[in-house]
């Protein structure tokens, strides 16, 4: 389902509203992302199972790419690609506790994270143990495409300061809080009532 769904994504110019996905933004982004894909293509512990094609002949187009890796510490699991590349590591159910630990320690980045599970205890455990791993954490929902005005968004760790544009808390970044105390009763001494 994952592979067939990925391969069905229609890609092309954004002038055609039937296209789900356009090109990446510029040559620098294209070069960075395609270098990750080439790394996967040449890595012994990676297999490209969907996508992997790209061309900059008429825009910077990169097909959505899924990479399967046997190593949870692979470069593609640690570095922030910021492009249409998803790296998957399959683990046994019995390894759930260990994989949560691995997720928490593998990368310095923390823009978004997600867990998909029918077991409520699994979602609570993952959410609790991965508390400081992502600025935005999703449960049974996609972790891309936050909509301005509907969801505050911001990354933590090496992915940002975790400010949340779209949240009233962001206002603190642009103001300097000031505290003022005014007493309307003349001061008759310096001691506190407890000193009397």
TrEMBL record:
<keyword id="KW-0560">Oxidoreductase</keyword>
<protein>
    <submittedName>
        <fullName>1-pyrroline-5-carboxylate dehydrogenase</fullName>
        <ecNumber>1.2.1.88</ecNumber>
    </submittedName>
</protein>
